[in-house]
Structures are given as C-alpha cells and as structure tokens.
Design goal:
Radius of gyration: 46 Å
Order of helices and strands: HHHHHEEHHHEHEHEHEHHEHEHEHHH
Strand order of the largest sheet: 5-6-4-7-8-3-9
CATH class of one domain: Alpha Beta
CATH superfamily of one domain: P-loop containing nucleotide triphosphate hydrolases
CATH topology of one domain: Rossmann fold
Number of strands: 9
Shape: globular
Strand content: 5-15%
Largest sheet: 7 strands, parallel
Distance between the termini: 147 Å
Number of helices: 18
C-alpha cells in the first residue's frame, strides 16, 4: 500500500543505525578472551562481562578465523564437567561445618559489659528441681484457676502428681506426709473436672472422717472456689432439714462416710443424684482398717457399681498398703483390672523434719487407769522435749481430751510466768465445751491480772518519784 512504504524505509534505516553499535572484535585490539596485558580494569565481574560464547565468533564466518586459538581455549575452559554424588555430599558437609562454626563463633561467651546490646541473650533457665522432681509452674493452668493457688510453683509432691491428676482421668492413690500439700492435689482434680464439664451438670463428693475436718474444708473451698461459681455444702449429722436444699443445689458436697452411706443406701431413690457424681475425693483413706472403715468401703463399692463413670482420688499420710487400695479402686471405670496410679512419698518430703522420741511406761490391765497415769506424765514429757514450741497432744476419746485440757490448764496456772512453756492468750478465748469454760475464764483472768501487774512494775521503773514543793532546791 502507498502508506506502508515510509514505514518500511524507516524500519530499514533504524536497523542500519542500530547495527553501527554492534560489537566487532575484528576492529578492536580485544579478543573474546582478554589477556592480562590489557589496560582494562581487572575485577572478576568486569572480566566475566567481557567474555563471549564461542557461537558468537562462529556466526561471523571468516572474519573471526584469526581468533580461533582464543576461541578453542575458551571452549576448553567452558566445557561441561559432570559432578558426582560424592562431590555433592562433600560440598554439603563443608557447608554444614562452616555454618556450625559461624554459629559457635556468634554465640561464644562475650566479655563485653552487661549493658552491651551486642551481647546475645542468655537462654531461659529450666524449672527448679527438688528431690529429683522438676517443679511445675501454676502458669500451666488457665487464668481462671490460678486464683485458687496462692503460690507460683507447685511443690515436689504436687508436681509429681500433676500429669496424672490434671492431664488425665485416671484414679489416683496418694500417700504423702502431713503438710506436704495433698489438698492442692484434690483442687487440681476439681479443676480438671471443671474444664471437662462446661454445662455444670455434675457433682463432686468429698469425704472426711470427722465433722470438724468437713467444716474446715467447706469454709476453705467456699472461699477459693466461690469465684468459679461453685457452691460448697456440708452434709453431716449436724445438718438439719433447712440446710438440705443448699445441699441439693451445691456442686461440691462435703460429708462423712456414715452420712453418705445413709443417704445413698437406697440409691435408686436418689438415682439422679448418684448419676451426677463424677468425682469422689476420699481423705484419710487409712480408716479402712479401723472400725469406721466398713461404711467407707460400702460407699466406695456402691459408687463403683452405679455406673456413673466416677473418678476416685484417695489420700492418706499413714496408709501402709497403698498398692492394695490402688488395686481395689482400679485405673478407671473401663479398666478395673488395672490398678490405679499410686504415688508414695517418704518422710524426706515432709516440710518440717520430725524428731522421734519414744517414752515407754509400764501399763496395767485397766485402760482408764493407764490413761490417767499417762496424763500425769505429760508435764514431764513437755518439759523435756517441747523446747517452748507449740504443742499438740492426741487423745483417743472426747472425755480424754477434756481431762487432758484441764490438767494442762491447771499445770499452767500453778507455774510462774518464767516457768511456763507457752505464753498467755492475748484475747478472750471462746470455748464450746462447757466443762472447759471455767478453766479458760480462770486462765484468762489470771493472765490479765499478771499483765496488769507487769505493766505497773514497768511504769514505776520508768517514771521518777515526784518531789514536794518544800524540798525543791533553791535557784541560784
């Protein structure tokens, strides 16, 4: 077409003009393989940029024939050489060794000042280890459960049981000394149950042998678990009809073996309640060998036969055959033939070491007379071993406890302030036992009278005597 001719001429003219800028080795003093005598820069990058492939000269025909030796040399240098697997593995090992040396050099202990920013940070130290057991932090628990525990780390007994009690549903038998933190293990079991049942359609039963222990546990757990919307109710022989409604609405029922036995003996009448029990906590399980062990054994066997998939946690400080109890409870409802998890801790885990002293006395056939004789020996034992520290006396019966308390109160009252082995009470003591109210009031009055006398003596020593107006010395 007429309009296309100018475009073709313009294209040819542009192609011709671009060819003037093409590289031609024949018109220069350079070859495709520049020698060392050239006056160009000698950097490796520049030398590599000046190299041209062999096909470049071949495409120029006879014009590049006089450069054939240099072209042959370049072709020999650029020939492909296959790499073996051994060479690749050797290069990979060298790279790894070089990286490891660089990392070791970087993390080498530095002697720079502590405030130097170039010094690498120290790694976080591990958890403390006590008796060969790594202590578990309370931060392993969710935030809502941390308020139950007022310490940052669980002790050795609690840390050893943490995996079983909080991260599984297996039954547990724990034997540990008094004061080693067994109650926190029960609280971990409660936290495990709460995290598994979000609907709240469950109940927890805690059994203790005495009503005083039940009352103490109810007050403590109501304070700790109340913020988690868990209600604790006490169900003992002292519970009247007006308190039964609170027991029905409570999540944690704190009771004795005898009371729970009487409630669940006709368990079909309370089938809904029995089916809701998912956690059964047994404190002082060693009472199985005593006369009161029969109700506890009956209660546990009844809860196992109901079929509510209940979990058992049994605690004791003095049980000698914890393995037999673990075999009796079983690992879980589906594996009754497998013993429960058993943890036994010796006296070395007691927070306060005990010194044991045995004093033997000749007894007689009359137990009551022998008990009175032991009461008479108490002042001697306290004088010899108490070291003026707090004293605890165990008595077998309530009457024996009252008689022992009277004896100690009279003994304290007949001694002088310097000869007494414990200090007087600072405030009025409320005593529930009628027989001991008189003794307590007399001791309190005597302590108050002695305190007033001692204060008067100190006042007389500190204040100088007054002088009369006539004996005043003259002013000079």
């Amino acid at each position: 077409m007429p309009g296309e001719a100018p475009l073709e001429d313009h294209a040819r003219t542009r192609a011709f003009d671009m060819s003037r800028f093409a590289f031609d080795a024949s018109h220069t003093d350079l070859s495709s393989s520049s020698g060392p005598e050239q006056a160009w820069p000698s950097s490796p990058t520049f030398r590599a940029s000046q190299q041209r492939p062999a096909a470049y000269d071949l495409s120029r025909g006879s014009e590049g024939s006089h450069h054939r030796p240099a072209r042959d040399q370049y072709e020999q240098q650029s020939a492909y050489e296959p790499v073996t697997v051994e060479q690749l593995e050797h290069e990979e090992r060298q790279m790894k060794e070089s990286s490891r040396q660089q990392a070791a050099t970087y993390f080498e202990p530095s002697h720079a000042p502590r405030d130097s920013l170039s010094r690498p940070k120290k790694p976080v130290q591990g958890a403390p280890v006590v008796q060969g057991i790594s202590l578990v932090s309370t931060h392993e628990l969710p935030d809502r459960f941390r308020s139950i525990f007022s310490f940052p780390l669980f002790n050795a007994v609690q840390s050893k049981c943490f995996e079983t009690i909080y991260k599984s549903n297996d039954n547990l038998v724990l034997s540990a000394p008094t004061g080693s933190g067994k109650t926190a293990v029960l609280e971990l079991a409660i936290c495990r149950l709460i995290s598994g049942f979000t609907s709240g359609s469950y109940k927890i039963v805690y059994q203790a042998p005495t009503k005083s222990l039940c009352s103490e546990r109810q007050r403590d757990w109501q304070r700790k678990l109340g913020p988690l919307d868990l209600q604790c109710a006490e169900l003992t022989g002292d519970t009247d009809i007006s308190q039964l409604r609170s027991v029905q609405n409570a999540t944690i029922i704190i009771t004795t073996p005898e009371k729970w036995d009487s409630v669940t003996r006709k368990w079909k009448d309370h089938q809904k309640l029995m089916q809701m029990v998912k956690l059964f906590l047994i404190d002082e399980v060693h009472i199985l060998k005593e006369d009161r062990g029969a109700p506890l054994e009956a209660v546990v066997s009844r809860m196992k036969s109901v079929g509510s998939n209940v979990r058992f946690v049994a605690l004791s400080a003095t049980v000698p055959n914890s393995q037999d109890i673990a075999t009796w409870l079983g690992k879980d409802p589906m594996n009754q033939h497998v013993p429960a998890v058993r943890e036994h801790f010796g006296e070395e885990f007691r927070p306060v070491r005990l010194q044991k002293h045995v004093a033997g006395y000749q007894g007689n056939s009359n137990d009551f007379a022998f008990e009175k004789m032991l009461n008479a020996k108490l002042p001697e034992v306290i004088t010899k071993w108490s070291q003026r520290k707090p004293i605890m006396v165990f008595c077998f019966t309530r009457n024996s406890c009252v008689e022992t308390a009277k004896l100690l109160a009279n003994w304290w009252a007949t001694k002088g302030p310097k000869d007494r082995f414990w200090s007087a009470p600072r405030q009025q003591i409320v005593v529930g036992e009628k027989d001991l109210r008189g003794e307590s009031a007399a001791s309190t009055k005597m302590a108050a009278r002695e305190l007033i006398q001692s204060r008067n003596t100190i006042f007389r020593r500190c204040v100088p005597p007054r002088r009369s107006a006539g004996s005043r010395p003259p002013r000079g």
